[in-house]
Amino acid sequence: MFSPNDKNRGIPNLGDLASAQNFLNELNLVDPPLHGRSFTWTNGQTDPIWTRLDRFLLSLDWFSAYPSSIQSALPRFGSDHAPVYLEFGPHTQRSRIFRLEKSWYNNDQLCSLIHDWWTETNQEGCGAFVVSKKLIHLKHYLKVWASENFGFIYVQKNDLLLEINSLDSISKSRDLSDLEVLRVTQLRQDLSSILREEETYWRQRSRITWLKVGNSNTKYFHSIANGRCNKNFIPRISVDGSWIEGNQNLGKLFSDHLGFLIGIARPSRFLWDWQHLFNSRDVVDLSNLDQPFSLDELK
């Protein structure tokens, strides 16, 4: 602990608090304020003790690079510790790539829906053209269906966490009733189901296929997926001794440099008279190329 306010009751050890403050001063570390809750650990007894044990200690260089760093606490679930996370700004936003999520397979109606969407469109033309149009049509319906059925999974997760956190706060002042205990059990079961879907989501993005199914080490999956984003992220570039920052400035810098390497497009020295070129050629009927292949042609 670094302050007497880091514990809800009891006499603080002033010697330990002084040593902790000296530790911060000697290493030039900063303990930012905690948002979301006052304490992060409880012993779970009838008259519980609440303390703040989990925190981020940030250096001054970190605050110089990320001045908008935020430390917040999430609702406690399945542990006597409340998770703490640090926000210091998002990466560059980009359009999302369409993926067939493995978590969608948990829905029993998916196969029948895909069959209906695939057969309800009637396209004319060659086989490749029909398949491409059907795939575009199927992609549109899948995105709408996924948004309606899976798009609010994070909202549901947050609602469950908030309700669990509310009942957890009530338990600090009194014992929960039988109905409230049953409600907490049901909330934890619903949250476990959502967390399994979220784990499948992150396992697919981590590109890890050698882990056993059921491994709940979602922190590892998050680190793999986010590590690729961090590796490709360019926060700033040094040009002639000065630093260029910001998405628009970096984009213009790359665009100007690429234009300098490629050069300016010059008009072609060759002029083609297409009408004169094909005057001596007979018109060829290519309509038969749109016809499907026959069995004899395939053989």
TrEMBL record:
Superkingdom of source: Eukaryota
Gene3D superfamilies found in the cross-reference section: Endonuclease/exonuclease/phosphatase
UniProt-recorded name of the protein: Uncharacterized protein LOC120278582
Organism: Dioscorea cayennensis subsp. rotundata
Organism classification: Eukaryota, Viridiplantae, Streptophyta, Embryophyta, Tracheophyta
